[in-house]
Amino acid sequence: MSLSTILMALAAGGATYADLDAIDRQVAAFTGAPVGAVGGAITPLDRRLRLQRCQSSLALSWRGPSKDSVVVQCADVGGWRLFVPVRSAPPPAFQPPVREPDAINRGDALSIAVTGQGFTVSQPGEALESGPVGAWIRVRLATGQRGRGEEMRARIVRPGLVSVPLP
Fold first, then answer.
1. Where's the Flagella basal body P-ring formation protein FlgA SAF domain (predicted)?
2. pTM over 0.70
3. Which domain holds residue 121?
């Protein structure tokens, strides 16, 4: 066999393989984003792939509801199917929740307002915990039996005022 015959056989054999550049272009057109971009294929197809040339047109579809890869399928008899991973948008950077400044600090003197339907009764007390407006903290009445005030939980209304709502 001559060298020219071998080269012609290789050239003819190369023509039977699918054009991987064309498949990359079809995936980019399907996703609407180029290779490497957000929404596009993560990388181009591996150039070592030797896929038979597809006589029918390729079918492209999303794989699953998360759209994390594209299915490229040749419907010919003995055809093939590829799963092309797609670059998703990066998750937003973690941002710790913004903590409101404390409206009341532990040890602060405050007014404890007990509220019900149509009435409010206030007594002086002391904060046993710190917290921002809206938080529930432990408080103690300033006077009570046995020299120590009764402890309860109250919601911070504003600096210096907590509320204990009655049903």
1. 94-164
2. no
3. 109-165
Summarised one tens digit per residue, pLDDT across range 123-165 is: 999 999 999 999 999 999 987 555 567 899 999 999 999 999 9
- Using DSSP bridges, classify how beta strands 119-127 and 109-116 pair: parallel, antiparallel or unpaired: antiparallel
Pairing type for strands 136-141 and 161-165 reads unpaired
- In whole angstroms, what is the distance from residue 73 CA to residue 79 CA? 8
| Domain CATH for 128 | 2.30.30.760
> What was the pLDDT predicted at 147?
56
Strand partners, 17: 52
Measure CA 89 to chain center. 10
Classify residue 90: in a domain, yes or no: no
Kindly state whether residues 81 and 121 are assigned to the same domain: no
